Amino acid sequence: MGTVQIIITLILFLVLVVPMGKYLFKVATGEKGRFDTFFDIIDNFIFKIIGVDKEEMNWKQYMISIFTANVIMAICAFIILKIQGFSILNPNKISAMGSGLSFNTVASFITNTDIQDYAGESGVSYLSQMIVMTFLMFTSAATGFSVALAFIRGLVGKNKTVGNFFVDFTRVITRVLLPLSIIIAVLFLSQGVPQTLHGNITVSTIEGKFQDIAMGPVASLEAIKQIGTNGGGFFAANSAHPFENPTPLSNLIQILAMMLLPGAIVYNFGLMLKNKKQGWVIFAAMGILLVAVIPVCYLAEKAGNPALIHAGLSNIMGNMEGKEVRFGIAQSSLFSTITTAFTTGSVNNMHDSLTPLGGFVPLWNMMLNVVFGGKGVGFMNMMMYAIITVFICGLMVGRTPEFLGKKIESKEIKLVALAIIIHPILILIPSAIALKIPGGLSSISNSGFHGLTQVVYQYTSAAANNGSGMAGLTVNTTFWNVTTGIVMLLGRYVSMILLLSVASSLASKQGVPESAGTFRTDNWLFTVILICIVLIIGALTFLPALALGPISEHLMLH
Q1: Strand 201-204 vs strand 57-58: parallel, antiparallel, or unpaired?
Q2: What is the pLDDT of residues 3-37, one digit of tens each?
Q3: Where do runs of H (alpha helix) occur along 216-275?
């Protein structure tokens, strides 16, 4: 039954990708759509209010616009968190957030990471939940999506401009994120997710005691949390909480919402390139890497903990520790795999309670950071590996490598190599520091291999802008707030700069006519080679850390 649930979810994903990809193509290219008359009125009003010049930008102007907008939003968000103790939309009288935690929270939500070192129901007011968290979920997702569209324009274009950030940013919010969020929020409401500005409700329990039930504007946050691959929850328990994710149907909607846009943007790439086969080749490489790890997590959790058998206890239910009964092993394992492959970060079970091999899968997904990813993140990273693949194949046959009709030369390879290496640097160096100094060691709740995994997982999640956590670390400290905040910012913006620089460099090159010696990149052979390159580089980079963490823990457990 669990296998059937997983297969049905993947089939639904494939069915939804094509129409969504076609719609994204119209949004990206400005091609007229059915509702453009309505959306044009909204967009033009916004452009007029903020004085947007629709002139095309080069990649440097595009990045400056991103930085300017993001810095202003970050400052405003920080101020709101510091003054949230006032009575405005604060029925539960939540106090102001500390400076270290405010920095971490702003860095987290502005970068689409949404690591939460606070408990949502007790750490932030409704004002902050709406104006900081929900607002930044829209803007951070739109920023990432805009960069992905600019990146594609650079790859397929013939001039140095990559679009206009403010136009892309506005169109993505008004035509994609906002409509989809409204639809998904309504679906969540139908499943029992609350949406209210009333304060917590005090109820009498069957024991005759009193309990506070946290409420709030949950459905609106939950919708953009998933469709924007943000991941930050209204409650500390995230999508394991019955008010965020009450039913198996709401769980399915959440999984599909996470997958929809990252998958559709790959199909959109094929349309913008005018070569659907090329788009499907990249999609297939990502899909194979995804499908390969789903059974690993599922079977590991289904097998359960052998220590229970050695103790003479029943293990027939598998590893249900940290999981909700309403989801079971299959939907919990699939959720854990999808949320880290698609760089969302929401969780419907506690990753700290996963078996060693079950926990290996989300960690591996974030380390690779190419399996669809968030708003174009996985796609752009996979294209970097595609360029590396073409370069290696060119060296093997003694021919200047070409990709998408453009010659790949030393400048592009240096930028790509730097873009690939910055990810493990941001993971492994901070992890080594945290495992060395008292500020890092004091937060580890488990000794041995699992404790190392907790540390590596935290920085991997931050560097990949994922946001999920193993929940075993005491992370609301100055050390963890500052270090993870810095890693999140560098993981987001350094990658953007390098990737747009590569796309701009390729856009300025003259096209190379296809010949008999051209290495084709739109067939299954390229898919296989691309997967091999991703696995080889990923294994060489991260295998030592994985061997000392989940792999050793698994071997010791058995």
Answers
A1: unpaired
A2: 999 999 999 999 999 999 999 999 999 888 788 88
A3: 218-227, 248-273
- What lies within 8 Å, CB to CB, of 546 at 6+ separation is 360, 363, 364, 367
Domains of the chain, residue spans: 2-274
The helix or strand, by DSSP H or E, that contains position 203, with its residue range, turns out to be strand 201-204
| Bridge partner list, 473 | 444
Residues 6+ apart with CB under 8 A from 83: 96
* Residue 102's pLDDT band (cuts 50, 70, 90): very high
| 3-state secondary structure labels for all residues of 314-377 | CCCCCCCCCECCCCHHHHHHHHHHHHHHCCCCCCCECHHHCCHHHHHHHHHHHHHCCCCCCCCH
Q: In b/e form, how buried is each residue of 172-198, taking b as 16+ CB within 10 angstroms? A: bbbbbbbebbeebbebbbeeebbbeee
Residue linked to tokens 């049905």:
8
The pLDDT tens digits of the residues spanning 221-275 come to 999 999 999 999 999 999 999 999 999 999 999 999 999 999 999 999 999 999 9
Amino acid identity of residue 29, one-letter, is T
CB 521 within 8 A of CB 404: yes
What is the rounded CA–CA span in Å between residue 538 and residue 545? 11
Q: Which residue from 420, 433, 383 is spatially nearest to 404, judged by alpha carbons?
A: 383
Q: Please state, in angstroms and rounded to a whole number, the distance separating the CA atoms of residues 420 and 416.
A: 6
Strands 402-403, 406-407: pairing is antiparallel
Q: For the chain, how many residues are written?
A: 558
Q: How many whole angstroms from its chain centre is CA 140?
A: 11
Tokens encoding 316: 């027939």
- Residue 415: C-alpha distances to residues 108, 139, 162, 495, 508 (Å): 26, 27, 18, 10, 15
Distance of CA 150 to the CA centre of its chain: 19
φ, ψ for residue 464 (rounded to 5)? -85, 0
Q: Assess contact for 25 and 31: CB atoms under 8 A.
A: yes
Is pLDDT of 547 > 70? Answer: yes
Which tokens sit at 348?
A: 């419907």
The DSSP symbol for 512 reads -
The 3-state DSSP class for residue 57 equals: strand
Q: DSSP state, 177?
A: I
Q: Can you list the alpha helix ranges (DSSP code H) found in 398-523?
A: 410-434, 438-441, 448-463, 478-507
Is the Cβ–Cβ distance between 368 and 255 less than 8 Å? no
Beta carbons within 8 Å of 173's beta carbon, 6+ residues apart: 138, 139, 142
| 88: its two tokens | 């405005």
Token readout for 307 is 């220590």
Are 489 and 387 in contact, with CB atoms under 8 Å apart?
no
The secondary element (H helix, E strand) that includes residue 180 is helix 178-190
- How far apart are the C-alpha atoms of 407 and 215, rounded to whole Å? 57
pLDDT in tens, 438-493: 989 988 988 889 999 999 999 999 999 999 988 788 888 999 999 999 999 999 99
- What six digits make up the tokens of 298? 């599922």
